[in-house]
Amino acid sequence: MTEQQVAPNSNNNNNNNNNAIIGQSTNKQAVILNMLRRARDKVDEKDVPFLLQVPYTNSDVIYNIMTECYGLVGREYWDVKELRRDEKEGVVDQFYVSSHDRPKEMFHNFGKRFHFLSTPHYQEGTSLLTLKHKGRIILMLRHPAYIAESMYLSRPNTHRGDLKGLLQYVNSTDYYDNWMTRMLANVPREERVTEEHFKYARMILENKFIIGMTSDMTETVKKRINLHFGWKELPSKQGCEMEYIKKGTMELPTSSLEEGGREWRFIAKKNLFDSKLMARGMAVFGMQKMRIPVHPYTVREDRKAVSEAFGHLRNVQDEVDKSDIPFFWHIPKASGTTVKEIMSKCYNLIRTEMVDPPSSLDLFPEKKVLNVDLTTPESIVVAKGYNVADSGMADVFISQLAVEGSTVFTTYHMGRAFTIMRHPVILATSLFYYRRIATWEPTYRPDFKDLTLHEYVEMPGYYDNWMVRMLTNAKLGGLNEGHLEIAKAVIKEKFIVGISDHMDETFRQLESYFGWKEQEAGCVKSFLSASFNKNKYELPERGGPVWNAIADKNKFDMQLYYFALELFGEQGKKLRRTQVG
Question: What is the pTM of this model?
Fold first, then answer.
């Protein structure tokens, strides 16, 4: 790929709008924007995936993953003339097919049909799109200083480490500054880029693109593209994504630039507007992690996984079976440490917890612990290989992963689930301050000491609605009312619910439901009055701006919590009636 091939508005483009400034947007620009879906719009199978090939950003790696790992057929354009020809012929309406509803295996001869578009020419490429088939653009981003260095090294008689030659190139008339801003805002090469151009380009980037990062290809592929488009590796291509990601990373030359150094700053200043776009793009990349619409195929797979996993748990109303095993879904910072101590010390129950890596079936009698790790999906697969539920070695299983954790149970030993819930605002506050000091935890974040609570919840990629996400297997991407309703149904059907603000009543209900009895009178009360993982901090003012910001970010967890409060009362009444009966 040469600079001339991808230069927006180069002389061979003959674009009649080349001299239009952004403050006076032309009809052509408005039409282009109208042909693109917003990144936050619900995914529609009629929409055309569009890979914008940005040079030296590993866009080619994404193309190879789409074609080789997912088995998709792309229509690739390098020549503007071909784009204009196919625009006139209406190739998108004629030959685009969904990669899901009409896979290529259905055709004996795929012919001109295709699943996605790919081109470095943004303006002309979007002209192929129609009102029937709008586009969803994938854009890879890399800092312009590193792109400039890669462009320089692609030229003859250059070598890595020649920073003097690099700066001379960037300062020459051969160099094409602010490439991304020019492309998005349709600024010709001979025209100076302005703040208005940048604002227009930023608006497009913020609203229209699925953002990927060259510096984080795994996150880009597995937690953005896969989620949004519902793609996955073909059965015969397992591991294909990571092979291409590793290969692409190795093929990008190691930079000789020191980030923030003199040369780096010189190139960044030369590309001031692209540097600002990069900074904004990084923020959008973070936000899309939790906001990007998830493809219906991915949602269906999540719901199937939820249904199958929770099929390993008894319903709350099912008759008691002595072979059933209690399963504690541990919500972080919701009295989990207290619950574990009480189960071991007061009820003499052996619980699962890895205290001496690696995970094993070793028993630590003095701690009342079976050394099994249930903290990650991978460790749970290992535990299932041990047939740990059927081993009879543990009285209570504990995991923060509600879905994956439920799968350890079997038809011979079903799980009976319970959990302790806490107000989402208080929980988020506690978790924030805990992670600032918990040097012993893998989630320790010393950098949080430089943040306020409000800044923390406004961070790009802040992990919202943890409870609903864990119950619905929607760990990333956007949520909707459907996720909330599934979470409510699961809680009602499968879980005995406790509330951290009402721990005395919670344990009365757990004792009634599971038949647990204190080994020594007053033991539970003693532990409930003790302090575990206590950290002094101030709660935000209830109803104040910080409180409301956290509540708004966690609106689905808020609704689930208030639903659980009502359920807690209803379950308590039923258990009391059962005792009286």
Answer: 0.85
